[in-house]
Amino acid sequence: MRIYEKENFGGQMNELMDDCDNIQDRYRISDCQSAHVMDGHWLLYEQPHFRGRMMYLRPGEYRSMRDMGMGPMDMRIGSIRRIMDSC
User: Fold this and answer.
1) Which terminal residue of the chain has fewer beta carbons within 10 Å of its beta carbon, N or C?
2) CATH number of domain containing 7
3) Domain named Beta/gamma crystallin 'Greek key': which ranges (predicted)?
4) Region 30-56: what's the mean pLDDT?
């Protein structure tokens, strides 16, 4: 999955292949405002270390927080976890 600092895939881009327990510390970005999920299913958490409110993303393009299902709420992304099959 690719995360972008600004809406519409703008600003700094980082590609994730696995869990990230603290977006700001690992990638040095101020915010995550858009995402492109190429493969897999992901959970985005409001706070570092997989805490706080959470949202689920499946493959697709998410040009804004609203596209991610957040509506007008003010939520920052603090950590991201990939959902893995347990079969």
Assistant:
1) C
2) 2.60.20.10
3) 40-84
4) 93
